[in-house]
């Protein structure tokens, strides 16, 4: 098959952009060359000579010779303007920016259709794990039941450090920041927002349903305390930040990001440090499991490279599962078995939210309730000002 010659305009030359430059140099078989690189800071020292760079995005966007834009910047708003203009000018686009895609999914779909150009984003979800294209191509049928994964490397690193090394959450976070795994303002990761953006991509490609970030509930790991960490240790469990989506037979999708207790029989148990892991469950093949590096220059650049290579033979996502009548399940229909840690003051009030209580405990400082609660009631607890609480999932409970 004849491969297309790709002339690339690259945006961003940070961790992933530089990684891509290196990876492309080591892949001479691919007919893809970076013509120009657009970056932001004119004062910054670069690893390659300055004739490769511009600070004016239009030098790439208005260059008709450039047929492919690779967007690898760290600013979601600026990224959207770049990607939108590139698509409108008929350029194929590769991006790794999950926040940008999650916030503008419908508009990006419309632009791809209207201007008949592909937008690929494998690196935006779990970096080196080829999950988007698998969901799009391999699981191209109605029999996929669920997708569940550890999709954020920095929170997984922090959780591994607290569980295995006995570090406090604060120590582990500092360590992750020192090693460059977590941002100086880490709330996007630790609050579960980054995982939610990725989940939104998974839901779109697994079930053909486009949702907005606000439609999916997320709790991160930033509220976890010593009580639930010790509980996990005593029971031989690990706490993992899990992105979850499951479709029932009526086409209703349960989807959330929550910290979850996993036991040693769960494939996610052994996914530690900055690794990511995704389980798919389908009617005939049961559970399949993907694992790989979820961040870092080369693992992320390898996914970008795979998208570039796919563009060279005119690959595009066909979004074949879109336009189904499936939708997110209502919060009152989603029941979860959870451990809720709470302050002493709110113990009686929080108990009322539970449908079933299996266990409860009070010390001089705080307490916990283990039982079954609807997502609707979890959201009501979230809205309580001044209450000190955290929540860890055991499992989703099926109710008729
Ligand atoms: N790092 C990872 O492991 C990883 C994994 C998966 C996905 N991603 C995604 O990949 C993208 C890039 O991440 P990164 O870690 O490579 O970021 P980074 O190291 O912070 O680099 C960001 C780059 O973007 C440039 N930039 C920022 N705003 C710009 C603008 N308006 N116009 C042109 N250039 C601009 C910066 O220019 P200067 O050099 O001039 O400052 C810098 O070169 C993000 O969307 C991120 O979410 C990253």
Mean pLDDT: 95
Overall tally of domains: 3
Task: Please state the CA-atom Rg, rounded to the nearest Å.
Answer: 22 Å
Q: What is the helix content? A: 25-40%
- Which regions contain 5 or more consecutive residues with pLDDT less than 50? none
User: Briefly, what CATH class of the largest domain?
Assistant: Alpha Beta
Q: Enumerate the distinct ligands.
A: NADP nicotinamide-adenine-dinucleotide phosphate
- How far apart, in Å, are the first and last alpha carbons? 52 Å
Number of DSSP E strands: 17
- What is the CATH superfamily classification of the largest domain? Dihydrodipicolinate Reductase, domain 2
Q: How would you characterize the largest beta sheet?
A: 7 strands, mixed
Output the CATH topology of the largest domain. Dihydrodipicolinate Reductase, domain 2
Structural class label: alpha/beta
CATH architecture type of the largest domain: 2-Layer Sandwich
- Tally of helical segments: 14
Shape: globular
């Amino acid at each position: 098959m004849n491969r297309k010659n790709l002339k690339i305009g690259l945006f961003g030359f940070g961790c992933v952009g530089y990684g891509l430059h290196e990876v492309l140099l080591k892949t001479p078989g691919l007919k893809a060359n970076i013509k120009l690189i657009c970056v932001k800071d004119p004062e910054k020292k670069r690893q390659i000579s300055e004739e490769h760079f511009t600070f004016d995005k239009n030098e790439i966007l208005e260059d008709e010779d450039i047929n492919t834009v690779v967007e690898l910047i760290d600013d979601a708003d600026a990224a959207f303007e770049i990607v939108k203009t590139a698509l409108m000018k008929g350029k194929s686009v590769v991006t790794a920016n999950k926040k940008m895609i999650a916030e503008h999914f419908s508009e990006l779909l419309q632009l791809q259709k209207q201007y008949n150009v592909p937008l690929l984003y494998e690196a935006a979800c779990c970096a080196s794990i080829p999950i988007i294209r698998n969901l799009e191509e391999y699981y191209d049928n109605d029999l996929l039941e669920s997708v569940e994964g550890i999709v954020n490397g920095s929170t997984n690193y922090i959780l591994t450090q607290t569980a295995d090394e006995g570090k406090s959450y604060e120590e582990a976070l500092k360590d992750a920041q020192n090693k460059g795994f977590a941002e100086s303002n880490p709330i996007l990761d630790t609050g579960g927002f980054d995982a939610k953006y990725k989940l939104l991509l998974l839901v779109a490609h697994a079930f053909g349903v486009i949702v907005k970030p606000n439609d999916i509930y997320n709790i991160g790991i930033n509220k976890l305390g010593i009580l639930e960490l010790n509980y996990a240790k005593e029971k031989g469990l690990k706490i993992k930040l899990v992105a979850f989506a499951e479709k029932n037979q009526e086409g209703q999708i349960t989807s959330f990001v929550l910290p979850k207790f996993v036991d040693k029989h769960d494939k996610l148990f052994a996914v530690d440090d900055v690794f990511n892991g995704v389980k798919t469950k389908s009617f005939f093949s049961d559970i399949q499991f993907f694992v790989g590096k979820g961040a870092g220059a080369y693992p992320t650049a390898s996914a970008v490279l795979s998208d570039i290579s796919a563009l060279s033979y005119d690959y595009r996502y066909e979004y074949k599962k879109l336009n189904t009548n499936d939708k997110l399940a209502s919060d009152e229909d989603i029941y979860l078995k959870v451990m809720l840690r709470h302050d002493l003051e709110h113990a009686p009030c929080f108990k009322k939210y539970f449908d079933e209580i299996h266990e409860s405990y009070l010390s001089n400082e705080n307490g916990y309730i283990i039982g079954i609660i609807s997502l609707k009631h979890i959201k009501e607890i979230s809205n309580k000002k001044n209450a000190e609480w955290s929540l860890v999932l055991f499992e989703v409970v099926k109710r008729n």
